[in-house]
Predict the structure.
Amino acid sequence: MIKKIAIGLLAVIGLIYVLVTIDVNSSDCYDIQKAVVTSPDGQYEAKYNQNICGSKPTRMEIFVGGRRSRRSALVFSALATTTEQVQLTWEDNSHLTVAYPESMAPTYTNDRVFDLSIKFRKGEQ
């Protein structure tokens, strides 16, 4: 009986240890919103965010969505070892240009969302 109690107690302690470890490891990450650029007619926003997690490479993401809705779509994602800058420019109400440094390698791009056209220019800032 004592053996079963000891095994149960060790299992509970192990579970608590795993949960605390997961929580501690996930808490060293944070998001920084670097820029929000609104389309000329005010209907859409492009948001440039950086996700920083300890010693892991910084994840950079750009989302486009309606200003008055919660709907948004990922249009660009990249990993970088520094906090490289990305430039967002609305050419008109339906065309967004994303310019990013030569050293950045996109992991995801989407050139069409919500009737908007997205252009990507590598090597420009």
Remarks:
- Residues 62 and 86 are 9 Å apart (CA to CA).
- The longest helix spans residues 2-26.
- The beta strands are 29-38, 44-53, 58-66, 72-80, 87-92, 95-100, 105-109, 112-113, 116-122.
- The two ends are 70 Å apart (CA to CA).
